[in-house]
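Hi C.,

You asked whether I'd gotten around to modeling the 374-residue construct. I have! Everything is below, sequence then structure, no commentary in between.
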Amino acid sequence: MHFTVLQQDITTAARTGRLALPHGTVETPVFMPVGTQASVKALDSADLYRTGAEIILGNTYHLYLRPGTEVLETFSGIHRFMRWDRPVLTDSGGFQIFSLSSLNKVSEDGVLFQSSLDGSRHFFSPEKAIEVQRSIGADIIMCLDECTEYPADYDRAAASQALTERWARRCKAQWERQDTEAQSLFAIVQGSVYESLRRESAQAMAALDLPGYAIGGVSVGESKEEMERAVEWSTALLPRDKPRYLMGVGAPEDLLKAIFHGVDMFDCVMPTRNARHGRLFTRHGPINIKNARFARDPGPIDDGCPCPACGTYSRAYLHHLFRARELSVLRLNTLHNLSFMIQLTAQVRQAIGSGNYAAFMKDFLQTYQPGREA
């Protein structure tokens, strides 16, 4: 991987960059659709190209359980398996350790967990997490981390942050035993909502001198203000010449604020999950296509949106499809929400290039009302 900072905004920490990866080039800031099980729900790979996606995310935990590393190795990795020839990033499974905490036991050695599919028991060490991701074949892979729950007292957050740091050193050692050019390893900053822990973690991870860095343990129940502070504390101490990835954050307003502080990469299931429930992004805020007011609305979801749904169908038709429980609406809604996020990052890159990101963000947030659901 090679990362180049192309432009730095004058009044904020926002910047544009370019990631050169084995399966292609990615312009940053970038939003990555989540393809948990080698599939972005409701879409196929051809649809992903239509959204303009340059990189997608796969989930190590789920791919390990199904279809399994043997199947993926048969296809020489995820790209050939799902017919996607652009870059892929895999998470380490750390968030699933957090979200399925009733099914696992964390120790210094790693995580013993029970499969959410069939109840079988498995063990992930930091070394095993790296090897599973090698089998998946992603361009960017992540260190195994422990995502701290919220709320967590200081001692609990400190212990979790320290464990994540020790695991990161083991992950790096395992990664360096094989070809480091084929896959780029990112370490993950933890520390909950505590400034001293976030700064300590960022400094420790930066000292590992890895290709990139992620900020984890956010959007787990804390307030928007707490999340933004955690991001700011972390980015301030991460290397300027390495990409910064904010994990699991995808609300448009949160994305823009994180870019303000210098974040380059994002992923989140929220745009696709919302789409399947009829909640669609527009530049004025989200709408719920199920609502009766759209039954005779001849307009597109969002004026000016280039997605196939907006270019072809009316709100009234999408409302009808949703009410009739037609499966095609899941695809159309998902195409729109992902296209919205990808177009938003393209507009961000243009604003940074013009030197007016702060004004762009202010104008967008004045128009966009996240609590609105027309």
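If it helps when you're writing up: The radius of gyration is 20 Å.

Thanks,
B.
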